[in-house]
UniProtKB/TrEMBL annotation:
GO terms for molecular function: hydrolase activity. It comes from the Bacteria. Residues 29-208 form the Metallo-beta-lactamase domain. Pfam families: Lactamase_B. Keywords: Hydrolase. Gene3D superfamilies: Ribonuclease Z/Hydroxyacylglutathione hydrolase-like. CDD domains: metallo-hydrolase-like_MBL-fold. This is Glyoxylase-like metal-dependent hydrolase (Beta-lactamase superfamily II). SMART domains: Lactamase_B (SM00849). The lineage of its organism: Bacteria, Bacillati, Actinomycetota, Actinomycetes, Streptosporangiales.
Length: 280
């Protein structure tokens, strides 16, 4: 049974509780996880909906250092862990903003937005983990699955024995994969999608509005459709390149974002992400 509490909605999958954020977890909101073992409880990706009324936990895992995944981190004065590849961005907001690759004035605006709208504060105490790290909660383990591409340190988490795989921002939306940061990599994103195809789980939880997918077959077909967006973007680009174009013309053609989305800064905050409605 779902219970609405302080901006998030709880739903149980085995002993894993998904804290669905406001607006079904669409950006700037997101979905968080609450995982309880006999010895310890952890939270994954405390979202904007956990700024108030966050459930207690002994530690926090962060799938990657993006603002929508850490907005509720201030609710947790406990150890926080993230992959080595995103550690500096979690420790310092300046590093996080630098990773967006903005021009100086845009970077300043982004830094203010992170601070004021997403409550982002540096966590110099954050600790790094690597692929395969296991967090033993007592009768329940959470294993790190490194899935780079979206960011260098982007990770999923496999909860066992429940069979719940959190896939974070491999979010299966019709927008498709996002790889627009300095540390992003399309090739790594594709390799991560390939890795995910091979992992059998009962549930696959995304960080955003597609929520939780049940069953490997259903997950794989949605993953294939999601990966197909990359191919569509490439086909569009190749069609556009039937005559010589400058980089500026290619940028202006809006291969990834819809034409009405202006600029990368605005795009990030006001609609570039699927379902994004945040306006400043
Ligand atoms: Zn992200």
């Amino acid at each position: 049974m779902n219970t609405r509490v302080d901006g998030y909605t709880r739903a149980d999958y085995g002993r894993v509780t998904v804290l669905h954020g406001a607006e079904r977890g669409a950006y700037p909101y997101g979905n968080s996880l609450l995982v309880k073992g006999s010895d310890a409880t952890l939270v994954v990706d405390p979202s904007l909906s956990l700024v108030e009324g966050a459930p207690p936990a002994d530690l926090v895992l962060v799938s990657h250092a993006h603002e929508d995944h850490i907005a509720g981190l201030g609710s947790y004065d406990v150890p926080v862990h993230v992959h080595e590849g995103d550690l500096e961005a979690l420790r310092s907001p300046e590093s996080l903003v630098a990773g967006f690759g903005f021009a100086p004035e845009e970077a300043e605006e982004a830094a203010a937005m992170l601070r004021e709208r997403f409550h982002v504060r540096g966590r110099p105490d954050a600790r790094g983990f690597e692929d395969g790290a296991v967090f033993d909660l007592g009768g329940r383990t959470v294993t790190v699955v490194h899935l780079p591409g979206h960011t260098a340190g982007h990770c999923g988490f496999l909860v066992e024995p429940d069979g719940f795989l959190f896939v974070a921002d491999v979010d299966l939306t019709s927008f498709g994969p996002y790889y627009g940061d300095v540390g992003s990599s399309l090739a790594e994103f594709e390799a991560s999608i390939g890795r995910l195809r091979e992992i059998d789980a009962r549930w696959y939880g995304t960080a955003h509005q597609k929520g939780v997918i049940e069953g490997t077959g259903e997950f794989r077909s949605r993953l294939d459709a999601y990966a197909g967006v990359i191919r569509r973007r490439e086909e569009t680009l190749l069609r556009f390149l039937t005559e010589p174009r400058t980089v500026e013309e290619i940028v202006e053609h809006r291969l990834v974002y819809r034409p009405h989305v202006r600029g990368r800064t605005c795009g990030r905050w006001s609609g570039a992400r699927p379902g994004g409605t945040w306006t400043s």
